[in-house]
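Now for one protein, fold included:
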Amino acid sequence: MSDMIRFKINEKEIACEKGTSILDAAKANGIEIPNLCYLKDLSPYGACGMCLVEAANSPKLLRACSAKAADGMEIFTDSERVVKARRVALELLMSDHSGDCVGPCKLNCPAHTDCQKYLAQIAEKDYEGAVATIKDKVPLPASIGRVCPHPCETACRRRHVEEPISIAYLKAFAADKVLASGNHVLGEQSAPTGKTVGIVGGGPAGLTAAYQLALKGHKVTVYDKMPKMGGMLRYGIPEYRLPKAVLDQEIAEIASLGVELINGCALGKNITLADIREKHDAVLIANGAWKSASIRCPGEELEGVFGGIDFLREIALGGKPAIGKKTAIVGGGNTAMDACRSAVRLGAEEVSVVYRRTRAEMPAEDIEIKEAEEEGVLFRFLTNPAEIIGEDGRVKAVKLQVMRLGEPDDRGRRAPVPVEGEFITLELDSIIIAAGQKNDPAGFEDLPTTKWGTIVADEHNFRTELEGVFAAGDATNKGASIAIAAIAEANEAARHIDAYLAGIELPYHEPVVSEKELSPEMFDREKAPRAVMPQRPAEERRNDFTEINYGFSEEQAVAEAKRCLSCGCHDYGECKLIQYADAYCIDCKRLKGEHHPGFRETRLVSIERDQGKCILCGLCVRVCEDQAKKGILGLVGRGFHTVVKPEFHDAAVIAACKDCHLCADNCPTGALKII
């Protein structure tokens, strides 16, 4: 009598030896059945509930790790019942799983830069490794590290101890180190695909997409209307914040991948969108937002009224705008800060910032406001231009409406309200309107736009209504934002363009991650204050456009990087639990309840064990018993409060544990970490 049986899995004919489990038979035939507690050569445990399958005509689901294949059986691994049961099993596991998949810094970075990883590399003085990590998302690290308003730092949990880590400046530090060494850290470039991509706009979004697409093996050409590449990094950020020699070096690295850079090429003037579409297999529109927004104030047409972006661009092009001795800047964002501090450097004797709310509501970075004050800028809060007064066609003064803050709205924000009849008149030679920026539609007439004049693009795949034409960055949808947000969109747009060129449609779903619930004891750490950036004194720096920051010393940078709390999981990339949670699009917080006791076990000599991440799959216990033959680990307690704990008997057992690591190697969640 033959020991072979035949049955079906997902309509596929399977032959295996009698007594083989459904899971082993599936694996042998290239069919993946999810599992978290199974390991070949160990007896089945059935703890995770992930390997459930459906058998035809069976009222209950089977655990594939323990159920034996039977002749004539029909098995379905992804039926509606199975998927629902696995999703519930995962949600139950995640309801008791206390751990961060990734650190809040990475989650809060629009580009999801792996801050934790590159901080660890800087702490080890592996600067090239750090730059490689950063460039996976940000190909201009020395530039962005200088100018980014660092939402990563806003989320940094070190703030609960004393102050956030100086993540952005550390990015610039590592990049400067590598640039100074003459080495070029670039991603691995794929073989040529024969496909071409045209990119309109050489700012942070366009350059990022060019870098990513060139690495994929595509031939990339960037078209830009300005004399040099860089976009707002060059023409909207003053030299004292971002030396253009640094930007030039980083752009040259991108060009070294074979990216063709064509400057002085304005869409609608030197070339049309139709021309670019004809030349290339795909097109990305990333032209930025180059028009200063109006505040709809009488007198804006007068000579001596400048748009904030126009003012900064003229300086970047080598000009010296005629602002006179007294000027005012309208606005409260970083562009307003760049404009007022540039006005000081142009020699204006009195520079005022007019803002309709209080300092607490200013969107500009606090350090920018503080540095502007040090350089002599005056701040006139709770005022708003009512009229720009002129004489002989030129600005003479501005009439300011006095404001107060009204009641909070649904979002808790207090709107500025005019104080009836109260005005201040401020004599001026010029006024700079830095109250926002918008897209210039010239050359994009074939593309649908929003009511704000931005280009309409799908928020997930970045496609426009024109075949093969994508759009990302400040020119699209919600309009102008910070450079790192444009870079984030460019990374995703490049991914979708690459898929489009390969004839693939990439599905979208919000990635699933686990986030730890915070408790005060997590932050009971020795205090180590944030590194202070050494800087030129205000009385010196206000007189020129030379970079104001000296940069961290190596000693400072390494010490600052070591302040990182390493919030994200060390095993995130290999964690089977989160991979399945993401694949099944579960809600990690749907099923909430009591948690197992959470503690860190360090008695495993060379392994740290985090009970909060443990799902009681039993793999570590069984591997230690059956494969290592030591039996050091065991399940302690009963029912819900069961935990895994070690038991050391003698020095020989401790020594064996030190060099084994089988438990950590097979842990599916990152609960075990080799130290």
Summary: The chain has a mean pLDDT of 94.
